Amino acid sequence: MIALVNLDVIREFFPAGVGDRVMEECARRLKDQARFGDIVARAGGDQFAVLLIDLPESDSGLARANELFRALRTIRVGDVVMPIDARCGLARGRPFLLPSDLRFDELYERAERALTRARAFGTAVAVED
């Protein structure tokens, strides 16, 4: 899960519609960063869900999270360049493949808990094991 933590500030201080344009540009950039098979979706509010498919067991996802952050670093809307402050909640698991694997809703809930911790502690990324 990725949340844009300064979206409320953007919506408060910029004209109507700028926040929506920021979200649209963030969605486009996240989709551009997706690999074949990855899924990017708007999860509501200021959040996106990014399902990274086929990460090696040794990969925690932190490198991919950093790549996504770099893609979102600044957004230009008209003549204004805005810094984007984002937080990420990571959860590892394989949904649907084997009976012992997590269901998608379980994986999603774990990512939301990690995102809540990242927001609460002001860290860029939190991981839910």
UniProtKB/TrEMBL annotation:
Alphabetized PROSITE patterns for the sequence: GGDEF
Alphabetized Pfam families for the sequence: GGDEF
Q: Which domain of life is it from?
A: Bacteria
Domain GGDEF as annotated: residue spans: 1-129
Q: What is this protein called?
A: Diguanylate cyclase
Q: To which species is this protein native?
A: Paractinoplanes ovalisporus
